[in-house]
Amino acid sequence: MPSSPIAFEALRPGMWVRCATALIPSGTRDEYGLTASSPDHPGLVLWKLNRLGGVNGPRSLISASADVFYLSQRGEGLTDEQADLIQRYATRAVYDRASGSWKLPEPEDITAPPAGTARSRNRVPSPRTVYEIKRELIASRLVKRAEELGVDATDLDDLVIEALNAVASGQYNGGAHPDRTALDAFDAVHDDADERATAVNNKGLEAQLWLLAQCYGEQAVHVLLAQQAGAAASDV
Fold first, then answer.
1. Whole-structure pTM over 0.70, yes or no?
2. 82, 53 in Cβ contact below 8 A?
């Protein structure tokens, strides 16, 4: 691992990097990933894993950020499977300018093993399978806890709206919709967030809890449920 950072201007598509992201109020978080570009999207993006071990979409890289970049070896900080997954996304994903989001290939395309890979009885589960297993386990635990606390879907509507609008703010700050004015770009990402929140809230408790878990992590959602239960009790 190099001891000195590289300048933002030296970054090019196809570089494996370690990105040291500043945390508030102090400290840094290391993110390992692959830089990439697309003819449909200006500037560089960083493809990396999300907190659940999947890949949802890349983060736009801007020179004005406090991030510090170091060159790394392919897959440094990652498993071989994770590095392969990131590389597939970085080379196949397409940016949709109309929605300001990345359209990823179908799950079976993303998780398909490279041609010529030998079959084995002890195959590693695909990332999609791992994702579904995590969803089933985490969502079921959270639903059970919500029911124990007497928290229902209507109690979580505002939390879902807040979570998705926080994601939208990150997209806006990352340069979403660069072809629009700042006000139009802001409205676009938050209008999309409101539509997504409505869709999630209409699907019920399990969908809401899984969305919140993806945004904040499972343990944080347990805390939110307890707080929500306490607020509901104080209103009685």
1. no
2. yes
Is residue 34 a contact partner of residue 13, using CB atoms and an 8 Å limit?
A: no
Cα–Cα distance measured from residue 151 to residue 163, given in angstroms and rounded to the nearest whole number? 18
| pLDDT one-digit tens code per residue, 181-191 | 888 888 888 99
Q: How far apart are CA 227 and CA 210, in angstroms?
A: 18
Cis peptide before 42 (omega within 30 of 0): no
Closest alpha carbon to 19 in 44, 39, 41, 38: 44
SS3 40: coil
Q: Which residues of 130-169 are buried (b: 16+ CB within 10 A; e: fewer)?
A: bbeebeeebbeebbebbeebebebebbeebbbebbbebbe
More confident residue, 81 or 51: 81
Long-range contacts formed by 199-204: CB under 8 A, 24+ apart: 200/160, 200/164, 201/153, 201/156, 201/157, 201/160, 201/161, 204/153
The CA-based angle 189-182-171, given to 5 degrees, is: 35
Whole-angstrom distance, CA of residue 131 vs CA of residue 112:
15
Q: What would the two tokens of residue 111 be? A: 């998780």
Residue appearing with tokens 């609008």:
165
